[in-house]
Amino acid sequence: MNFRHIPLYLTAALLLGAAPVAQAQQELRKADKHYEKFEFALALEQYKKAAEKRKPDVKTAERIADSYRLTRQTVEAERWYAQVVAMPGRDPQNIYHYAEALRSNGKYEEAKQQYMQWAEEVPQVEERAQHLMASCDKAMNWMNQKMPLAEVQRLSGLNAQGFSDFSPMNYGKDAIIFTSDRGVDQDGKTAGTYGWTGRPYLQLFMASRDGSGNWGKPTALHEMINDQYHNATASATEDGQTLYFTRTQLVQKRKSGNADPTSWVDKSQVQEYINRLEIFSSQRRGTTWSEIKPFAFNNVEEYSVGHPALSPDGKIMYFVSDMPGGVGETDIYYTLRQPDGSWGEPVNAGILINTPGRESFPYVDQNGKLYFSSDGHMGMGGLDVFAAEGKHAAWTAVNNMGHPINSSKNDYGIMFNEDEETGLLSSNRESSNGTDDIFSFKVLQKPVVIAVTTLERKQNEQKKNVQLPLPQVQLLIAQQNQNDSSTALTNTKGQYFMDGRKGNSYVMQGSKQGYLNQNVKVEVPKTAADTVQVAMVFDRDEKNVAIVLENIYYDLDKWDIRPDAAKELDKLAEVLEANPTIKIELSSHTDSRESLKYNQVLSERRAQAAVDYLIEKGIAKDRLTAKGYGKTRLVNKCTDGVSCPEEMHQQNRRTEFRIK
Fold this sequence. Notes:
By secondary structure, the protein is of the alpha+beta class. It contains ten helices and 35 strands. The chain has four domains: about 55-145, Alpha Horseshoe (Serine Threonine Protein Phosphatase 5, Tetratricopeptide repeat), CATH 1.25.40.10; about 150-445, Tachylectin-2, Chain A (5 Propeller), CATH 2.115.10; about 445-540, Carboxypeptidase-like, regulatory domain (Immunoglobulin-like); about 545-660, CATH 3.30.1330.60. The strands form nine sheets. Strands 8, 9, 10, 11 and 12 form a five-stranded antiparallel β-sheet that branches. A four-stranded antiparallel β-sheet has the order 1-23-22-21, with no helix packed on it. A hairpin with a 5-residue loop joins β21 and β22. The chain is elongated. InterPro entries: Bact_OuterMem_StrucFunc (IPR050330), OMP_bac (IPR006664), OmpA-like (IPR006665), OmpA-like_sf (IPR036737), TPR-like_helical_dom_sf (IPR011990), WD40 (IPR011659).
């Protein structure tokens, strides 16, 4: 452009118009520099200024959205990812982040649509997307439960407004240790500011509870524990004299690794400087602490270890690491205290606990039960709190703690009081700026997983009943005395896992083409384990095919219905109630011993006794026919004069029913 031939006022206007663009470019350069150093809060300040002067391109919009996501400002993250996914040239990964933001904001139906879109653009993530969509359905189901699982309330006394407070842990009697970035200065030293969050570095605090249950003012731990960088997620021995805690070290490496001092992020983002976590311990000496000692398995040059959690007896310590050989991004490990007081070689907690995602913030209650947070198991969004069944070497199940213990946001750092019904947990569920708070909770109805298995009853070549998995059975499930119900389908292994509550009763009806319907009532006692096993046994809907009832025994020369036989006939009554149109012949058979006439009369009386019992249970008389066959229908070679073991004679002494 030749300025000599342009009027002066137009030249001035062009120069003035170029100034905002130049300023925007300068602010973008500053923002990008902060972003690349993981100073996302500082980057956002510059990105906002630049966006006011110039519409962001796709790269800048992605970085703004990422910065909101990584500072856990989910409302703004959702708004920016919505813009990014509509822009040409954007990475499909942004669709996933958009879906995650929607889910974190409780918009489950919209999130499902985005997960579906993500899978369409990236076919190799189809399985993961289906899992996340199922998680959305599960979350909506948890939130629609009529009876709340627990009461959850934010604690105003412990939390500092505008700052993060999280991961409370028992500390002696009536006290806790927790993590906060409220930034208390100590010994004339000013708390530094962390560029990732724009708030001070993390420190450990202690708070005590008075006789009325009120929390006193939190105080920062001694500077021996709190140095000038991050100090977080601690666990103390039961007497409060030994403390294990997490400390962060900045490592200069051009290698993948962890960048977030309290959690973990996608390793591909890390380029040069990384934060690595280490575990340290210290002994209490009156009002001060001894020199800190490093955990034997710290390896800051290669990986992180953090989030220590001691068992009540101090013999097991769980922790989190991204060390090589793990299952996912971060795994839970445990180590056993050796006779000499040292810690043994770390052991991965295994694939029932750990997933390809992140497992973190372990906690062990008074009974030695493990709790932890995960974004890999099926949950409501972000991190959810889970409870593990079994022991450190033999886990049997992992159960989501359900709503409202969990929310669509991050929920973690749980601990229980001595009553095992109340406790504290961390969550950012009520935060708009990404900060975490400590909440109290009271369990009203403890969750339980009801593991339903559908089986087909068949006879093998030895004329013995066997039960084989029956897949794709439709289940109609209702809580007793409740009007609403839900439907489900067992998987290819004949399994279905549903969430229930201890102390409640449930009614299930199973149906499958070609099989008799099956009803079962499940009563879950308040003392039940965290998983309740339920088996539903199905028989084929075929006319004149004998179905042997198991465990129908009679005393010698008697036909009275014994209590053990009554239980089996009760099951038959339930089958008849579930299939009101069928009529059956109920037959009794004897073995070959005694005379033909004797066995005939005895079998007829036993068959009639069984029919009479079913009539007493409310089954219409015209649906039942009693038939005694004596020893005329033996199922094996044990005829008169043949020596057979008692087991083979028992095969002949049977009660059957046939659909007529």
